[in-house]
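Fill in residues.
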């Protein structure tokens, strides 16, 4: 264990006891040490691992004092070990090997792309859905680790550069053009007819939501809305079938919102995708949709079906990211 940047060694040896790290004023404290430091790094001895909140992690652990109340914990490790900690969180380890290989490559690509734009100097990516869900060594499995090893250092590139290889659970028929959602205009992310995800458990979804609840959510998030919503209509869809504008009709007034904002207002796991229809019956909105996720890039359940049908990981990746190539991480 050491403090940096001074690199002062606090303690070295086997069997560091389980303990709770806390922040007190300007100190990081644990039963075996109290330091006037903003950062403490725990470096595992070779062949050992570190447990945090009942999860095992490879690599180094940094405890960073962020405020009087909290400690930010970061895990410092190489890209290959990081990708190993992601795969089982994203897809099932019993999926065909070519699906696991394709997922390894896009997870590695996405992480290396994100690393170019650190949002915070303390870390490159978070461990949740805002980056990629990461579970450390606890979520590694033999087959997924094997897929990572077999594709070691390989990433997707376009015109010689790493690009954001987005992915999502199920596209519901066609993938989305990234430029419809973000300021990203790239040939491999323009969207394609998927044709492989019909058997996905997420291919279609339905929700019943009271019109009053929709109105309440719109107002809470600062959107305008008629007092008496009589009808909700889809005004426009884009070429992939996703909703662009939603209209709320009152008796004497109306309001509009983008399909993307409508999903965010009600929650992306309630409105699972932007491909949906709405019917109002007795003040209840019956919403039927296709797919789960933003729809950009690779459709994971489409990838699963392609691999089951015998397509290789290179064929899968060039289907979902037209014009991309497999290159080496620098
Ligand atoms: Zn699909």
């Amino acid at each position: 264990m050491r403090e940096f940047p001074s690199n002062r060694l606090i303690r070295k040896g086997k069997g560091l006891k389980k303990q709770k790290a806390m922040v007190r004023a300007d100190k990081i404290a644990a039963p075996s040490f109290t330091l006037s430091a903003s950062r403490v790094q725990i470096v595992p001895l070779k062949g050992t691992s570190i447990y945090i909140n009942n999860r095992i992690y490879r690599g180094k652990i940094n405890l960073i004092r962020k405020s009087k109340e909290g400690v930010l914990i970061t895990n410092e490790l190489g890209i290959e070990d990081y990708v190993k900690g992601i795969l089982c969180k994203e897809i099932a380890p019993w999926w065909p090997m070519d699906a696991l290989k394709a997922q390894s490559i896009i997870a590695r690509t996405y992480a290396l792309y994100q690393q170019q734009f650190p949002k915070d100097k303390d870390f490159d990516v978070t461990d949740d859905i805002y980056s990629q869900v990461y579970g450390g060594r606890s979520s590694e499995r033999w087959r997924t680790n094997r897929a990572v090893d077999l594709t070691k250092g390989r990433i997707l590139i376009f015109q010689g550069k790493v690009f954001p290889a987005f992915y999502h659970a199920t596209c519901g028929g066609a993938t989305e053009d990234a430029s419809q959602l973000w300021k990203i205009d790239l040939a491999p992310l323009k969207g394609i007819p998927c044709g492989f995800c019909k058997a996905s458990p997420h291919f279609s979804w339905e929700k019943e939501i009271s019109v009053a609840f929709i109105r309440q959510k719109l107002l809470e998030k600062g959107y305008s809305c008629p007092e008496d919503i009589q009808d909700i209509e889809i005004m426009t869809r884009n070429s992939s079938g996703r909703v662009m504008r939603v209209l709320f009709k009152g008796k004497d007034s109306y309001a509009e919102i983008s399909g993307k904002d409508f999903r965010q207002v009600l929650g992306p796991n309630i409105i699972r995708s932007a491909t949906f229809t709405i019917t109002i019956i007795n003040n209840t909105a019956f919403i039927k949709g296709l797919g789960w996720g933003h729809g950009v890039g690779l459709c994971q359940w489409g990838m699963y079906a392609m691999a089951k049908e015998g397509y290789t990981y290179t064929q899968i990746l060039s289907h979902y990211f037209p014009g991309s190539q497999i290159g080496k991480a620098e």
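The mean pLDDT is 88.
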